[in-house]
């Protein structure tokens, strides 16, 4: 495959949201809201929002004459997500013990809410906890959402009611004190001391490292979901060891999903220039999204953390949309040995067990390329201004290029659209349908940013 590293578009908006945009052309597209801001979790009902996008090409943009933002975004509609019984979901951290039960569903992460869930008076109660990350559209108008608390994958109706929940193999489920424990150690903003003991799960997904990525094949038959990084029994939670992430494949062509394959993905690493100890400086670039490609491969968004707009350090060293590819030599690790409770594919330092061959990992598109960013007045590193790239890039979408706009008259040209997550870092935030005012303690206003790349596959 080949590609052109040409940045074609840039947009900034002031939305307090987590974005995940699967689409096949520029038309109304959905995104999901994440569950929290940087100061603690809140009783935010998960939702899908529809947007329309308009891209105006800027082929003459240069560092000397940079283009203004040329991707326009228009809000269209919101779908609020509920449980199977119609009760709103919540973003409050799941309880350390216990769960919510519904017939035909696995044990679901649940949160006990005090008052209104925003620190004020209210009815309290229990709701299903969702930390929405991945989003994919079904062919029947339904949609699938991957979550970090479970980590689970949920199917919702076009009106937002939960229809189905996919529980992964037992090895993925977080456990504390030999018991299922869905808490991510992300206490509510009104109760910052509500931390589970121990704070990190003893096995299973690490806190806030669950099912970050989700994608579905164009024919709607295959669903892929991937952990953000290695589980705690195979390298986590230490950032320098958690490089063996797992990728699951499900057959969703029938009425009930079927678990069919599982693969290891060895994540890339980067050198943290702020770490003085060389032995601790090499860290894992956790992944933030995957997207099914026309070639049958998967695009994967891997990045460093702690660098960018609103962070103490502004220069990122690894933000890339790369490619992972399965071959006949790739090991299918689906087995009782690896999928049982505490089942491990790697050592505590992240070394794969003998005989396991991961998918092939190929570097592809570098978000931090200074010469391309300059064409749109953007930069990586340097001043903390609105043109500095945000820290968290967490979505991928491919849009076929219109025949008239193809640069090399190739059949397989695409626009890659990628959005950032602003983590509710704002000084003028509104939640709870406008009733709750919020100002982040950092003092920053982080706009949601979007980049558009032109590529061929």
UniProtKB/TrEMBL annotation:
Secretion signal, residue range per the UniProt entry: none
Domain Phytase-like, residue spans: 72-312
InterPro entries given in the database record: Phytase-like_dom
Top-rank taxon, per record: Eukaryota
Name by which UniProt lists this protein: Phytase-like domain-containing protein
